[in-house]
Amino acid sequence: MNDLLVxxxxxxxxxxxxxxxxxEGWNPGLADDACFAVPDPEGFFIGELxxxxxxxxxxxxxxxxxxxxxxxIVRQDLRGHGYGLRMWNAAVAHAGPRVIGLDGVVAQQQNYxxxxxxxxxANVRYGGVVAVPDMPQGRVVALSDVPLAAVEAYxxxxxxxxxxxxxxxxxGSPGHVGRALVRDGxxxxxxxxxxxxxxxxIGPLVAHDRSAAEIILQALLAGAGGGEIFLDAPGINGDxxxxxxxxxxxxxxxxxRMYTGSIPPLRLDRVFGVTSxxxx
Length: 280
Description:
single chain; 35% strand; 13-stranded mixed sheet
């Protein structure tokens, strides 16, 4: 285990973690590596044995009070040798005193609890094939036409820390389609759909209520096309679960959203689709 060299990834190496995540069946987006490196380039770590990648982990620091851990992967042929613990310790050290969040596989909940994480709620990935709907009626606009400050203000109600640079890249990345709903001059919801290794993922999808979320979702599907889609919904938001089910989607995966401490109060009733299990 002492032979493992743990170091910070170069920006181009984030693709290694994304490709390994794809091999684990996590189905990342086609532009995820370029987006994920934006908020904290120092937050991605690789473990090497004789110069060959052996393990990955990320712990992205959002400001001074919050971090999110992901991409915790040891190469399959090297598991059980303690390399994962070395990677884990590097990630946690990078976070410092910040509260850390993660979306962990359900089977590992007890191990995360031993490291000080407490279960907040489950996130459930719903998937299925949908037809291309008509463009909905209502004040639906391209998300890129909405002032970023308005998007940031809305995001602050559903995410524990500011993430301006990430949002800017996420909205503008190639292949990403964003739509927003405006009522009486007020932003009442927005969402992004992106191409993935398999189908497309919708995330985030945030809105004042189910009606608004449904309009945005319909606009996203009309703009990006139908086919296979995935939506990661907080299990404690009954309207989000019902929206996924009414679309004909079925549960295909579940994670445990956990935190090491207290985070600001969030409007989880507005979260109909999580941005990413890797970065929150």
